[in-house]
Each structure stands twice: as structure tokens, then as C-alpha cells.
Design a protein that fits this description.
Helix content is about 60%, strand content about 5%. It has about 180 residues and is mostly helical.
Amino acid sequence: MFNKTDYNFIGKHGECVSKLTSVIDGSKNFSIFQRNIDVLFIAPIVGYLYNRLEDRDINNPDNDENKKINFQQLSTNKDILIFNYSLIMLLHDKSKIDLDERINRAFRYADGTPEKEECEKIYEKYILGGISVLKEKLLDNATSIDDYMSNMYSFISECNDRMEKENIDLDLNKLFEN
């Protein structure tokens, strides 16, 4: 997914990334995220925590909002991207898909296979859903730095609560048996 070319956020997701990385207060040089790749790091985890999966916005071809992450930056941060992908594949539909198949999805399917492409589509849906959640939770209804800071605090608290409720249990003993 990230090992061939640049990655582009387009349509409404491009707009969201643009807003999330824009300077909100020029005098203090304040922005929520510094770089597009920072959004990419956190978005799939947020998408998973909020169970938000979205498709690419291809219905608005006139929208020229396109936020790119160049291939070099993706390559430099490959370890983080692979870790996030593996984590999401291990957790996705954990009540419906057995552990062996989730391990296959996370670690074994080869690039270019139909199975891997399907997993990458699922992962991208979490990325896009997470971007929408980030926009809603951090930017909506905020007009001042205090509002943004309050939104961030509330969002982090809410994520913490969701992580505790998720009670992520991968049964590590089974992982090491394989």
C-alpha cells in the first residue's frame, strides 16, 4: 500500500487533512498536526477505536484538495506504517475472524495478492474513517486556541476510555505458538 508510490488524500479527506495540518494561529504557529504523515500515523487507530470505516471520496472530482505524502517520507517511516497495519489487521473483526486468519492478514499475505489487496482496502477505510473522526473531534465547533485545546483534551480522554473498554486481548500465547 505504501511501498510503491506517493499516497494522496483526496476529496473530503484531503480537505480534512489540510485543515488538520493548517496553522490555526499564525502568531503562535499552532496547528493540530505538523505534517500529513502525522495524520496518517494516528488515523487508522482512531478509525478502529471509533469503528469508523469510510471509502475514498471520489464523487467530487472538481475538488482540487489533494494532500500528498511523498514516497520518500513513506519509506522513511515504513516501520510505523507496518506496525499500524499489522495492529489493525490483528484487531479487525476479531470476534468474527479466527486468530490464524488475522495473523495471515497482518503478517503473511504477500504484496500484490488478492488477499493482501483486500486487507489494504480495509486498512485504508480505517485511515479515512479516522481522519473524519479527527476532524469532528478536534476541529468542529472550535474557533480559538482554547477551543482546540479543550477539544484535544476531551478527545484524548475519550480515546483513553475507548481503549480501556476495548480490552484488547490478542491471546499472546496463541500468537507465539504459530
